[in-house]
Each structure stands twice: as C-alpha cells, then as structure tokens.
Amino acid sequence: IDDHGHDVFSKTIHIEGIRYQSTLTLTRPTEEDSGNYTISASSDSSSPASAHFSFLLRVKTPSRALLPLQSPEISPAREDMVVPLHSSFQLSCRGEAELLWDTPLLQVPDWEGPVEDNSGLFVSSITVGNATAAHTGFYTCYYASSNSTEDELEESSIYIYVPDPNVPFVPSVIPYANHVLSDQEEMEIQCRVTDPSANVTLLNIDTQRVVPSLYDSKRGAVGFFSSGTYVCRAVLSGQEYLSEEYIVHGWTGGSGLQVDLQASKAALLVGESLVVTCVARGSEMLEDLWKYPGKMGPARGEDRA
Prior knowledge:
Immunoglobulin-like; 4-stranded antiparallel sheet
C-alpha cells in the first residue's frame, strides 16, 4: 500500500527464452496518481544491458453522470437507537462528497467536518453532550450537492429516542404543528413518544372514543381522520399520559374534486330507461345539480357519495 492508501501490485513472469512480462496494477487511482511512469529492464549476463520504457498516465475523476454517488453511511449502522436521558452520543457519517446534517432541532448540535480521510472519503460527525427529549427524532446525513430532483439514496438516517418520564411526548419546535389539514390520502397526527416501549392510542375529544389508527413512534398516529379535536394517550409502566390537543381541519386548501360519471347504456331505444351514476369525491362539494337536455328545471340528485 502506497502513501495515498492505494493497493499497488507489481508482478513479473517468465514467458519463454529471454522474454519476461511485468504488470503494474494500481487500484483506486486518483488524479494525484497522474504522471510519468517508467519501467527498466536489465540483464545479468557477462555483457550487462538495460532498457527503459516510459509512459504518461492521466487519471480523470469520473463525472457524477458516469458514476452516481453511493448512499452515505451513518455510524452506528442502525435504524434507531435509545439514548439515556442527559447522556451524550455521537454520530458519524462517511460519503463520497461533502456532507451535511438534518436534525430534530432547528439548530444543529456540535458539528465536525466534513474532512477527507486517508481512504478518499469524506467524514462528518455531530455530538450531543446532554441529550433531552427534544433530541428525539431523525438524524439525516446527506450530500451537500443534493437537491430535490435527485435520488433519495443520497441520504441516510438514524432515529434517536431519548426517553424522559417527565416529557413522554416529543415537544414540537414548529409553530402550529398541532393543526392538521384533512386529506383524501394518509394523514399524520404527530404525537411522537420519547420512549418506543409506550403503548399509544388516539382519542377523539368530541366523542371520547378511541379512533382506529396505526401508531408509529417515529411518525405518530397514521390514518384517515375527520374534522375534530384529537389527543394521544400513552401508557408506560402503568402510568397514563396525554399529549397536547391536535385539531384536524376539514378544509384542504383547494384540493381537486374527483368526479366519476357512468351510464348504464350509451345508446337506447325510445322508451327505454337510462341510469346515470355520478360519484364525486372531495371536501369542497356543497351540493350536486344535474344538467341534461330537455330538463324542466334544476333537479337535485337524490343520492350523494
């Protein structure tokens, strides 16, 4: 291994007679390895003779388009980790380009790097000296050159839990995070717990009933929720805790209306019946009115969906 940390192999074999073959192998070359290379051959006969052959090697770093960046690697190499309250922890990340961090807090903890190690990789680390419940969440390492149009493989994450019996739910650092807009797709009520062993259910305050949902300690309560006020209830070691109130609003801010119109037949004879079914989905539909050739006046739909 040379001074650049590369594996260098030189091998000479006898072919036949006075013919020999020498091979030089250089793995993981960088632009610093560019330059003139010379091989010398000499004989041990009574009439010593020597010959030299030189060549110029130019190493060009592959462009991003030719060689996509591999996903950075976080150490410890785990999906999640539980850190004791008020203890310290450190995370490091290695990748092929300059690295940045996203953390649960608006202000990044003590940050080091990125620096390039002797293997040619970039290394960055963050250190938390006094872990609290607010440090619970995803820590994501990503390439500084990344943007929203590039592959998500250019980032890696680890989820940290910091259990605190006095702070069972992760405090939010985002204003109005307890307000949720209803959606036709999956929704999240982000009542995340600091202790992953807690048993959590979602309650509707208006009805005082448990609401069916899937609870993920890294996301919160996941499901489809109607307008109303909700609260999460966590049970840990026999003790019950309630989260702050979450308000689900019925207005989706201009979501599109989806309409499906179907007819029993496309062509009919005089006197035959025609059934036309209209199914509309969306939060902004107030009423449904039918318009058709020859109608006498506004006809209101008998059925709504």
